[in-house]
Amino acid sequence: MSSFKYIIFLTALLSCMSASAQDSLKVISAQQVMEIVKQFHPVARQADIFIEKSKAEVTAARGMFDPYLQNSTAQKTFGGLDYYYYNRPEISIPTWFGIEVSAGLEYLSGNRTNPEETRGETNYLGISMPVGKGLLMDKRRAALQTAKIFRTASIVEKRNILNNLLFDAMTSYWSWVQQYQVYNILTNAVVVNEKRLELVKTGFLLGERPAIDTTEALTQLQNFELLKSQAWLDFRNSGLELSVFLWTDAARPYNLPSAIIPADDLQSSSIATVTTPDLNNLLEAAKKNHPELIIYDYKLDALGVEKRLKFQELLPSVNLRYNQLGKGYDVLKTASLPLFDNSFQYGLSLGIPLRLSQGRGEYRIAKLKITETQLQQSQKQLEVETKVKSYYNELTTLKSQVALQENALKNYLTLQRGEEIRFQAGESSLFLINARENKTLEALQKLQELKAKYYKTENALRWAAGLL
Asked: What DSSP string runs through 181-216?
């Protein structure tokens, strides 16, 4: 499927407009741009990869709790003397609580074997466990808990990435919309002035208008044609800037053609009817749901795991190992024998650093990291609240500015219409009409600029609250 056909298909698929099918092939809305960015932009896809990597890290951390099967065998013969031969398969099963269960078989033969070893066929079933250090937390459990925390945090991180990406995309979209509106305004102005020039020429030929009026009309037309040419350039360049965010499902960049135009019409949109969001609700939503703030919660959870792990360094190292021994290879029979009765082996080791310098230092560092992160979170929360309030103030101000500019435009239109009536009555000049028209068009372009800025600020407000 070609790039052009692809974007047309995608636009039609995501379309929520009421226009005809033929017209929908030529327009694209803000919502459609957002959907395309979320699905196909490389940064959005990288965020998905980030989540998959965090899932793989959890799987890797779980690997430290996988059962482990091993076998060791050796034989020595020298000078015709059979020193030893042994074969020892063993399986060990780590558990979440720090206890490791093991079972194995042994075969030992030879004339020079270790007297501590048992010759022949034997088996054992045993456990080893830390009683002090490592009982409540060890590196394996800490690694798995941390990996799980970051796996959940990766989903929030994706939200943060998309929040920033969509903010940039929507800023480019509304700039594109604004430039298209300016181009339309100047296109209409050129059409009006072309007709006016023809009327003035006709009036001159009939002896009703002076020759200078044709020059006046032509100059005005040429000025608008120049402005229209620049507006078309600005529209195309803004389309290129928007194209940065438009990609195909084949991970290829898509250049937005001039045949596709914005679905949102600033001239027909009414800012006055748009409901301004409640500031308190936005602040509360930002506090609870802003991804940058939530990420700090996960960082604190991970640091809490690290703190519990470092605390273990302050405890004595006490390790217990017990093996139940049995003749032959029947491990199940050995498991049924009473503990510490006739056939068993156990060991107990104890150790502790006399000053605990490393343990005290690392535990102190872990607590300081938590305090540091809490301060960073408080600072970030203040920054988020400040941004929300700032954009909210800008939004409410822009809404009032749009209303003022709409009234000013009406007045400029009234003045222009009045000047045209006076001109038709022979009481004015084409120069004054052109001056009025220039002011009207400036006011109209300013209105589109304010409306575009309003929608940009509206998106910026949602971005600041972490809601894009």
From this structure: HHHHHHHHHHHHHHHHHHHHHHHHHTTSS-HHHHHH
